[in-house]
## 1
Amino acid sequence: MYARRRFAVLKNLLEYVGIEPGRLHFSWISSAEATKFQETVIEVTDAVKALGPAKHMIKDIRKVA
Amino acid sequence: MEAIAQGIREAAKKLLSQGAVDCVIGFAQGTVPMRDYPYFAYTPEEADNLTWSRFCCNNLSNFLVRREMGEAGKVAIVAQGCVSRNIVGLIKENQITREQVHIIGVASPGMVDRGKVQALFPLKTITEVTEDGEDLVVKGKDFEERVPTKKVLRQNCYTCVQRNPVIVDEMIGEESEATHGGNIDKVAAPWEKLMPEERWEAFSESIKDCIRCYACRDACPLCYCHVCFVDEARPQWCGKTQDEADVATFHILRAFHCAGRCTDCGACESACPVGIKMRGFTSKIEKDIRELYGYAPGMDLEEEPPLSVYKPNDPQEFIK
Amino acid sequence: MSENTQFTPRIAAFLCNWCSYGAADLAGVSRLQYPPNIHVIRIPCTGRMSPKFILQAFRQGVDGVWVSG
């Protein structure tokens, strides 16, 4: 519940700076909802697949060193 | 402005000679034009150095945290709107108690962005800047010009909604209701219209000059953690390089740590040596908090901080 | 398109011990099939979740982050 407020602000901020909305997912799943878990994994994977590999925010050691 | 400075000096002298406070935190005139610096007056004589002008860009509430209190156990502080809002925030976060501070309130005239003044006189050395009513008189070696202050205020002073102190023990000068007419929502607005790809470009462009000096953090009265997340080494959340990912992590997390607490005092932007506009990120969060939870930081001593409470019907469209 | 079909994303999944982690366990017991791209990280509660974790995950090169309570 506290986390919900935190995530609401964080998700807005990350989208604001340019992380694609489909890269970050939140969900509520109870421990009895195995089917919902399965469905959500598929949904999340599909969304990230559609976006392709991440381009931002990755620390490239080769560039730094 | 000089009348207010005189009022501050008199109030400070009175408090110090009575022994009511250990120290008065205010501003003294800097040795370089437009750079008035924070000043701690411990004796009535030192109080003569206090001043008040449109060049007081630091947020003085920064110096209240972790102060060792002397005999009186109390310090006095000169506070305008945003500083008093930060004091409210510090009281709410149990960093200080209301009894420990004596607030000498002043209405904020709107502070001058010295970068903007310098930009008006490219390649020239400004040797003296004085205030004359609503104008600044800028003097150099072979020129003297008047600049209206309204043109060279800091960006956050245009969008200020609270020029008068929220809590106050004694008020110097008149309260001022007028605003400079800016709208804070517009600070975040230009980016919100962009597509995700363009947003990242705009974001990385805006932070590309960052040299990771942490002046923004040190100038901020909200950043009082003993160990900041950027200094943590195990685990290391944020590398110490100037790699885009590290700089982005620093700015995103710094902005996020100010969520629901930032009063838009502009001390971070004034402190930045390379002119990064970090208010672009904090104002976005401020807007979100206001729209989602109807909260404005530091306005009320009683109201609970937005991220420390919840309501069952908080928005949750983003959660599956 | 061929690039996308070959692309196997790496997703950091932060699962609450009491909710989604249990659901993942139940999904396993029930033999429900789901994509193998998620890397499960168990957290004691969604309240433990910090923005640092999400940014750290992105910084280390994951393609997506999923937080589930």
Note: Chain C has one domain: 2-68.
## 2
Amino acid sequence: MTATMTKPSAPARERRGAARGKRRRGPSAYAVLVALAALAGIMLIPFLVVVFNALKTPQEYTSKGPLAPPSGFNFDAIRDFWDRVDFGHVLLNSVLISGSVAVLAVLLSVFNAYALGIGRIKGRIWVLALLLLANTLPQEALVYPLYYLAKQFGIYDTRLSVIIVFTVVQSAFGTYLLSSVMSAFPRPLLEAARIDGANRWQVLWRVVVPVVRPTLSVLLVFFFVWTWNEFLIPMVFLISNENQTVSVALGVLQGQRLMDATMSSAAALLGLLPTVVFFLVFQRTLSRGLTAGAIK
Amino acid sequence: MTTHHQARKGRGPAAAPRPDGRGRAREQLAYLPYLIPGLLLFAGVIGVPFLMNVGTSFTDWSGVGSPSWAGLDNYRELVKDGEFWASFRHNVLVIIGMAIVPTAIGLVLAAALTDLIDRHFGPRTAAVLRACLYLPQVLPVVIAGVVWSWLLAPDKGAVNTLLKDVGLGSLAHDWLGDPSTALWSVLGVMVWMQIGFPLVVFMSGLQRVDPSLYEAAEIDGATWARRFWHITIPQIRPEIFVVLLWTTIAALKAFPQIFVLTKGGPGGATNVPSYYSYVNFFEKSDVGYGSAIATVLTLVIIALTVVFLRLQGRDLGEER
């Protein structure tokens, strides 16, 4: 309900804003625009420098320094790095792990939040605080026991082990956000569905999930990006080359100081491109979903 | 079954909006199955390992062989360990760099983007600016670390080159290698990385604020600062709580930033508890001691979470 209500109002606001904007653009508004654009530019400088240097030859880098734009497109460094870490394979691992975690953790969050937010189970505050621990616990405290348990169950150095661990870790935030959204869920909607003869399972999938879907897609994006960026547990768990993720491959190479500046940049560029693409594709969902979820 | 019960109850003269008493208990019980997968997975992945960690913290163990019972030795050592306390002091600064400063900047930026840019220059401009400011968040921490350690490199690093080019060559130095600037450099990078998260959350929160509130205030001659203080902040207070808690926790757990930028150095100048426990776990093979550090850190985080959730509950309770 909240989701459908926000949609029609957005274009209306847009039009109003645009119409008024033409009338009242003071000099101060321009000053703020310029300041923000400058800040945005500063935020992007590291990205720009990375792109520059990824496209240089080592000789060019030494002679012209790191800030000069490249004289041409040179893909040697990128190709070198790609081959050295078998990037295609590493990329596939990251996509597989992050994608599975995103989907499974959203599913788990939905179930948890349904019981806590809609079901209002007794002691839900304590259950929530407990489940939050999955994300608030420092991973250093978990990594040794998990390493031990994974070895016991024979899933050490498998992608499955990392998927299981992060499904639980990420679902903490999802459970927190979704159960607060669901506890504000319009009760009459639920009761009407029940009177129509729907059982709890059907209410969840036909009434609750459609309404909170925008929030679910935000969680999907967050979980994907967060898992993609995870470092410690994948580094400890995925020791063999064929299981490595992008973050681990980059961090390990960097830690060994084996790369020169152009290759570092090429590595950075290759590592950030997938998440940037992912973010740009989902940018609209991101703002829309959080809004719909946040409305009380 | 419960549906009938509820429907019948709803028709009664003393119709309660929700079933209470025994009915409510039964109603709640019916939702329990939805919690079971979550609780089971939690027990296996978080609960058991955490208890194992607490157990290990009472032992002397190198990670292989059998641990020997040490009682409270590790904790006694911890209290006297200057390095440990220094790492906690650094962590206070990390909280400022990762939680407080980004939240404050994020608030101002979100308000400026929503209140000024969106209304005067259109939502498209605001969206583009938001995307630029959010981008560092999407960047994997490890890669951000690679980029920055390279930008801040002592010779031929972009920052030093830039300083020389504008005639401030005397300021150029080994940012991450000099103990007096290492922590501040790390904090600067953290602010850069972190701003996007509060910004996006606050901007989405601000979208549910009725624009006529701002218009009315503007017509009444309220300055931007007054509108910010009296409309923006109160309206998105729930978001402020959530963001502060989440970023503070992230700051207490800050590990990858330190790992890729400085490895806790130089000379422990950027050591934080989570990194310190990592060192004990994996480099010094003093697993018992590492567990003790992790346990203390966990207790700090739990205490903080509980205090925060209470404050948040009280604050939002007042509004209702």
Note: Chain A has 13 helices and no strands.
